[in-house]
Amino acid sequence: MEKPRNGGESKSHNSTPAHYKTIVLSLNLVSPRTELLARALKADLEVIRSKPPYLLLLARVLFLIKPKRTDQVIIQLPTGPLLFAMSVVKLLHLTKRLVADVHTGFLSAFELSKHGLLNGPFRGFLKYADLIIIHNETNWNLLPKNVTQKTVVLYDPFYTINKNLALADASVNSLERLVRFAVFPASWHPDEPILSLIDAWSRFVTQITLVITGRSKPDIIAKISSQGFATRVILTGQLASETYFRLVAGSEFVVVATTSEYDAQASSYEALAFSKPIVATDTRAIRLTIGDAAAYFDISKPESLAAAVDNVVNNHTEYEAKSRSRSIQIEKETRDGIEKYLLL
To answer: Fewer CB under 10 Å: which end of the chain, C or N?
Structure first.
């Protein structure tokens, strides 16, 4: 998963009709899901810039929202201070409807961590949201009990990815010299078992090269270099969106790996967008989201990775069909959810 992307100027996605205006709002960084959601709603995507301790955040949010006379503001969470600022906006009646798109990290981050300190104290402000969106069924267990009645599950609207461009150019990417490769779209977050995956791949997977994308962490790179076990593994660094999706389109399958039981990973949806077979860690959120479109492995048992890869390679057509079928199903559920809950 190419994450996160830097925010910039506001973007318009063929704005909704004048009588009903929606803004999708994020703080500093824009997740791929947020971009897809704005595109699905044909809404403006706005990025507020502010740094801790966020003393100017409320003023900047008010300056943005007040003249726009919005009917609905959808905010990307994390981070908590944005929820506080938009709660004030709602209490001042400057927007009719506040929707919180709650990423797993907002609910599950350890309280003494950086993310915990930025989110934990603000979770109580969810009561001011008119609607709360969670990303998969496992997130129900993380929600404060007093807001569950106004919460819905909405998958990533992956169908808004521009697949035509990526598919047209999939054969001309810089890795075309690789006859067979899989892609692991990494965010390089702590829940991704990157070192364990590289170790298992180098030892047990012999027929396919693993391409890991995303902005790598220096400490992990240092460990890889010192231990010298990265065989048949390529690190690309951060890629432009078009280059990244061309890589996904040209891959044999997509690897989805996390130790979190609550995060289905954006790369799951990106794989479904291109009807790619998936090799995934066996976690609750991933299994509930993509079902039998993946061959699963246990990261604590390196041999199981090789077995999952062999399963996909030997039954590639079958897994493509499963991915396509699950893609159609999730797309329908997501379109229906957006129409029911967000296009009022």
So the answer is: C
